[in-house]
Amino acid sequence: MERALNLLRGGGRPVTKTWRFSLDSVAVDLPNPAASGTLLGYLFGEASPNPGYLLWDADAIEFVWQLQRQLPALNTLGQTLSENNLLMMGANFPDWLLRFLLRAIRQRPLTEGAGRDFLLAESEPPSQADAVVFYESLRRNIQVFPGDPIAFTREFCRRAHAQEPPLTAGVAPGTTLTVPLMEPVMPDGSIFISYSHAPADAAAAFRIVEILRAAGCLVWLDDERLTCGDNFENHLEDAVRRHSGFFVSVISRATEGRGESYYHKERNWAAQRVESMTHTRPFYFPVTIDDTPLPPLQEPRAFAAIDAERAPGGRISDQLAARLAASQQRLMNPSAPSGSPQK
User: Fold this and answer.
1) Which CATH superfamily is domain 190-332 in?
2) What pTM value is reported for the model?
3) 90: left (phi over 0), alpha (psi -120 to 50) or beta
4) 259 compared with 181, residue with greater pLDDT
């Protein structure tokens, strides 16, 4: 693989940097892919005696065990695994070990909803009936496709490209923002996403997050940052009223249809936050993800004069993403020109 990448991208020159996950007590984090050029990562070791190599089930168990133990501290690796596609070649895992690997990568129980689907292609699926029952019971977030994995990947990519152009991954040029994984305290200046946890709304919120991060924004989402044992209300209030730089309100028939919910608390905290801000300071960005009539009726009165953007399914415009990215850069760099008032 390394020789092929060097041949394709460097004309034979050694332009590929390599990284490998180790079974050592403390593994070295994955370098930032956006700043590393061509990066080849060996998640289960390299084919050499040092630092180790995945050979059989006992080794696989050790690698996955160490991976799940160290992921919370390996921010770049964890973020890369959670936000990108993972292609595994030459690893014939038993089905139960594959489930364990998915749990390690997600860093939360498989029974909890996810913002994206996991699609598994297996030419010889063991206990196919059991696998189907297991995965379909997980809110249909994970699906098994029997057949050749290579043919499945080709067809999946063909359909994805036909449906819409892929997002540009990584951080926008000229930005230095990074998003640490599983950080309960919101970094100052982050974009707070307020949304209903109804399935359609959650999916739209995750799409908004993807688009904003691709534009170089630092985004905070409760589904990624809050875990069992956290005081949800205190964390959310602190995130909105103290740390958030911007507030994206995801508006839908679900948010308009309920008179009492956490997202109403979040939006009221945002309304209290703007009381200490100048009227020229952009802060609140309403986004309507379905055919909800405008103006919305359930949003705080403090934001009644701000126009909402129509973004079906969470597909916000490039203009809004660019504006938020530029506004966030100015907020974190006060010497930059100030932003324009919201309309």
Assistant:
1) Toll/interleukin-1 receptor homology (TIR) domain (3.40.50.10140)
2) 0.47
3) left
4) 259
